[in-house]
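## retry 2 of 3
previous attempt timed out at serialization; input unchanged, resubmitting
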Amino acid sequence: MALERTHPGTSARTGVVWEVLSAGLAERSTRTGTGELAVVDLGGGTGGFAVPLARLGHRVTVVDPSPDALAALERRAAEAGVSDRVRAVQGDLGSVFEVVEPESADAVLCHGVLELADDPAEGMRAAAQVLREGGIASVLAANRDALVVARALGGNVAGALAALREPVRRRFTEDDLVELVRQAGLEVGARHGVRLFADLVPSAEPDDPDLLALEALTAGRPEFRALATQVHVLAARPQ
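## retry succeeded, writing output
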């Protein structure tokens, strides 16, 4: 059956992350012998990933600070018929254990939230502590190297130099992100660049099949990863 247009697997901006994540969840399901996994989506907002994951049969808890986003999530889950598998709770990385038990999840999504954390290392440790042994973490963050390229292409050469010479708050190189994940006690698996051509080509349509294919084919190649708007890391808590 064809995927709906709003599904993360149909967009060049999220397709790579969806494919890597869904493969990781399938492997986790095989290891545990259960098709229903407990997933915590930190900063999951309106449920762009949570609702499709619930439709796969998983139980998803979305932790987000915005009551409006959580209300939209609940409407979206109801429309998809998965309200019984989606739990919306208000919170953030700093308060996650007020609403989620430690070591309670088979998977944690940490997409676009480290950029907002006062202390990204502490935030990453909190995300890792949500996981049971063998659980997986999907970590997505803004790429500093891509900012250098974007500023230069936009004519802001001085800004590109500044971004290259000094650490940029709320953006990470691939090495920075990998180190954060490792310091949190997780084993790093796959690394991918996300939103390379989808952001570089002004006229690109996110659901263009050729663009989806191009993103998928280049996402794992080091020579392209550094240019992608975001870096994605799939990691696991050791058994």
